[in-house]
Amino acid sequence: MDAHTDTDQLLRQEGQPTTAPAELLTYTTVWEPAELPPAGPMSLTARETLLVVDAADNGRAWAPGAARMARVGRDVDADPDSWAAFLAGLRSAGRAPRGLVFDLPAATTRPGRAMELVLPALLALRAAHDGGPLPVAFLVSGRARPELAPVLGALARATAGEREPMTTQPVSVCVETVPPGAGDPLQVALAELSAAEAPGLAEVRYTDTGRHVRVLHRRTRTTAAGRRPVFRDGGRYLITGGAAGAGARLASLLAHDHRARLVLTGDQDPDDAQRAGFRRLERAGAHVTYVRTDLSRASDVLAAVATAQREFGGLDGVLHCAGPDADTPLAADGAGPLGRGLAAELDGAVHLDRATATLPLDFFVLLSSAAAYLGSAAPDLRAAAGRGLGALAAARAGLGETGTRQGASVAVAWPPSAHEEWRGMLPLPADMSLRALSDAIRGWDTEIVTAYGDARRIDAWVGRLCAGRPAPRSEPTADRAPVADPAGGRLPGLLPAEAARPHRSATPCAPRPRTARPAADPLTARSRA
Question: What is the pTM of this model?
Answer without folding.
Answer: 0.83
